[in-house]
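Please complete every field before forwarding. Incomplete forms are returned to the sender.

SECTION A: IDENTIFIERS
Entry label: holo-246
Bound molecule: adenosine-5'-triphosphate
Molecule representation: SMILES string

SECTION B: INPUTS
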Amino acid sequence: MSALLEVSGVSVSFDGFRAINNLSFNIGPAELRAVIGPNGAGKTTFMDIVTGKTRPDQGEVLWGEQSRSLLKMNEAQIARAGIGRKFQRPTVFEDQSVADNLIMALKANRNPFAVLGWRPSPVSAARMAELAAEVGLADHVARKAGELSHGQKQWLEIGMLLASAPRLLLVDEPAAGMTLAEREQTTAMLCRLAETRAVVVVEHDMDFVRRLNCKVTVLHQGSVLAEGSLDHVTRNPDVIEVYLGR
Ligand SMILES: Nc1ncnc2c1ncn2[C@@H]1O[C@H](COP(=O)(O)OP(=O)(O)OP(=O)(O)O)[C@@H](O)[C@H]1O
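SECTION C: PREDICTED COMPLEX
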């Protein structure tokens, strides 16, 4: 299986401090991957590099079948190339309905400049309903986003990201602030989404990571410390020392 995303030999320093240090790893085209590691390990910086927010000093980040360099693209081009990022805090339009939030995302995806005067077509209404169903909000499309629970807002934002049909979704700490039931639904959703696209989840909650039941990459000091199943990495003495045993 060839990689969808290939990070090789990437380093980045901030004021002389190496936040990412010769980082290399690959993500497959339909893969669920959890990225864990102690505070300051470089997880956010890794996502910043992949999405074009931070430029590395060294290394290469290659994307897709044609191995295009993401380092030659800006943030908007990377998003259009198929990389979506879900930040920790949900950013939905609280005064708008779930349906309108999703429709806005579909509209923005079509043409970022055509925001005004756009009317949903039957096709986009059907697509909106599909997106709502995909993220478990089929019964909530008429509700204002501001009335949703924290977990439902997170799902709505995932639905909005799906509007642009990303091939890779980067998801930052989805479990934070969710109820147990919401976490369980989120795990199921992420597993389902990863059947047809790559999903990378940065998460501290080990119970959540266990439920994802996927390959885990442990970062430490900007490099891969261990990789494999959760059982494999949690038995690794280095991982125990720097992350689990504290
Ligand atoms: N813009 C910046 N300027 C200076 N230092 C930075 C900058 N961004 C990140 N760092 C430093 O780089 C290191 C890696 O940070 P990063 O946020 O990527 O870690 P993280 O694994 O996401 O941590 P956390 O789990 O706490 O979110 C940290 O020591 C951080 O202080």
